[in-house]
């Protein structure tokens, strides 16, 4: 990302942003503050802090200095007015939706949202008489016409999991705005290094910080940024539901974020090289990666992303789940696991990760073939990743 006069470049922000007010007694690193309570002998000062008239902390469920530093770093990277966090990505997504929606209101979203988000849409929001309409993910006309029929929240995700579909955020945010909707974008796959939804017209941008932001698969967290009033409502609900980000997790996420820009650069480049290698491999039927010209959303991705991300998926020509069973253990440099976005390459079929709750028939109906493999490119040397894939694919040629 480029640098402007009053704002340092993304890589510099990853390292410096948000920390200063949480540093202690000359420490160069943000401390992990485990204290639950914050003491004030001056009762007037205590009250001023409690009422939000003075900066400071009262109680760990509400705010914490380590969590504050993490939040501020993400806020500055997303170039947002305000920020709040939660214990997980789902903590942030559910807090945001439950804080902003009321019975009788309407959500428009897409079919390919993250599995947990989809469960909120299909199981939990309807219990509170909130109408949810899920459109074909890349059918922009359908989404626009549903939004025009009346919409309180337009919820988008791009690129999606696991087939990396891309939606035109600027176009749909404009439609949402026209209808008076709050436009929310899950930016987990792209990160602020590759995509800044607020610049594209979204009102709120949120992340599972568990994935690329933290980057080391050792801490759970969620974060949401945007306009002050919206964030204040989300924060208010989250302080009450209690899904607070733990200070130790906040520290790990903060530490991971120092290398975010470096990691994403390497992951962008590794994913692109892996996608190109696989696209030309005789055992592979199809590769889904927004950086490939063969990808249906490539032109939109070129316009709205600075890099195409570390996530791709591919299907083998031998399209059976047995193929996956045989292929997955052959890879030496890939964890077979449910997470993504870490420094290590991680793979998994949707049948055991994002779409574990669905039957094979349901997955087929959603356009997810049984031999699909989700590949989260790590930061390893690219020749090692390609060599590993090449040997693992040998029996399938
Ligand atoms: C993992 C993920 C989530 C949920 O985050 P958790 O931290 O696991 O709760 C939400 N959205 C996307 C795109 C994800 O990949």
Task: Summarize the model shown.
Helices cover about 40% and strands about 15% of the residues.
Would you give an account of this structure?
With 397 residues, the protein is an alpha/beta fold. The protein has helices spanning 10-16, 43-50, 65-78, 89-100, 115-124, 140-148, 169-178, 191-194, 228-241, 247-257, 260-279, 298-304, 321-327, 360-365, 382-393, and strands at 82-86, 106-110, 131-135, 153-157, 182-186, 204-208, 222-226, 284-288, 311-316, 335-336, 346-348, 372-376. The strands form two sheets. A seven-stranded mixed beta sheet has the order 1-7-6-5-4-2-3, sandwiched between helices. A five-stranded mixed beta sheet has the order 8-9-12-11-10, covered by helices on one side. Helix 6 (140-148) runs parallel beside helix 7. The radius of gyration is 21 Å and the shape is globular. The structure holds pyridoxal-5'-phosphate. Pyridoxal-5'-phosphate binds at residues 88-90, 114, 116, 157, 161, 186, 188-189, 208, 210-211, 220, 222.
Helicity level = 25-40%
| First-to-last CA distance | 40 Å
Report the count of strand segments: 12
Hetero groups = pyridoxal-5'-phosphate
The major β-sheet equals: 7 strands, mixed
Strand content: 5-15%
How many structural units, i.e. domains? 2
List keywords for this structure.
alpha/beta, Aspartate Aminotransferase, domain 1, seven-stranded mixed sheet, 15 helices, binds pyridoxal-5'-phosphate, five-stranded mixed sheet, Aspartate Aminotransferase, domain 2, 397 residues
Q: Layout of helices and strands, plus pairs?
A:
Blueprint lengths: L9 H7 L26 H8 L14 H14 L3 E5 L2 H12 L5 E5 L4 H10 L6 E5 L4 H9 L4 E5 L11 H10 L3 E5 L4 H4 L9 E5 L13 E5 L1 H14 L5 H11 L2 H20 L4 E5 L9 H7 L6 E6 L4 H7 L7 E2 L9 E3 L11 H6 L6 E5 L5 H12 L4
Parallel strand pairs: 2-3, 2-4, 4-5, 5-6, 10-11
Antiparallel strand pairs: 1-7, 6-7, 8-9, 9-12, 11-12
Helix pairs in contact: 1-3, 3-10, 4-9, 6-7, 11-15
The structure holds pyridoxal-5'-phosphate.
């Amino acid at each position: 990302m480029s640098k402007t006069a009053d704002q340092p470049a993304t890589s510099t922000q990853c390292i410096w942003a948000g920390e200063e007010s949480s540093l202690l007694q000359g420490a160069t690193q943000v401390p992990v503050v485990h204290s639950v309570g914050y003491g004030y002998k001056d009762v007037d000062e205590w009250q001023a802090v409690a009422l939000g008239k003075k900066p400071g902390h009262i109680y760990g469920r509400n705010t914490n200095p380590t969590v504050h530093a993490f939040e501020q770093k993400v806020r500055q990277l997303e170039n947002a007015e305000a920020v709040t966090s939660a214990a997980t990505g789902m903590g942030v997504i559910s807090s945001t939706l439950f804080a902003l929606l009321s019975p009788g209101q309407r959500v428009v979203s897409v079919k390919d949202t993250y599995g947990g988000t989809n469960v909120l849409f299909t199981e939990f929001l309807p219990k509170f008489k909130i109408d949810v309409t899920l459109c074909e993910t890349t059918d922009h006309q359908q989404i626009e016409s549903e939004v025009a029929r009346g919409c309180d929240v337009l919820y988008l995700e791009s690129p999606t999991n696991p087939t990396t579909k891309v939606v035109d955020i600027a176009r749909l945010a404009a439609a949402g705005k026209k209808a008076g909707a709050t436009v929310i974008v899950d930016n987990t796959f792209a990160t602020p290094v590759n995509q800044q939804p607020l610049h594209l017209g979204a009102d709120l941008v949120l992340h599972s910080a568990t994935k690329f932001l933290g980057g080391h698969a050792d801490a759970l967290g969620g974060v949401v940024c945007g306009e002050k009033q919206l964030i204040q409502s989300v924060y208010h609900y989250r302080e009450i539901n209690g899904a607070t980000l733990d200070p130790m997790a906040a520290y790990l996420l903060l530490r991971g974020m120092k290398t975010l820009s470096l990691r994403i650069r390497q992951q962008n480049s590794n994913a692109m090289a892996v996608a190109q290698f696989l696209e030309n491999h005789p055992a592979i039927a199809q590769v889904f990666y927004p950086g490939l010209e063969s990808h249906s959303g490539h032109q939109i991705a070129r316009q709205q992303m600075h890099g195409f991300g570390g996530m791709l998926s591919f299907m083998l020509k031998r399209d059976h789940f047995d193929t996956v069973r045989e292929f997955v253990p052959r890879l030496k440099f890939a964890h077979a696991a449910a997470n993504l976005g870490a420094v290590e390459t991680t793979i998994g079929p949707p049948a055991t990760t994002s779409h574990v709750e669905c039957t094979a028939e349901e997955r087929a109906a959603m356009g997810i073939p049984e031999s699909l493999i989700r590949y989260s490119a790590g930061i390893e040397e690219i020749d090692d990743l390609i060599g590993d894939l090449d040997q693992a694919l040998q029996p399938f040629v």
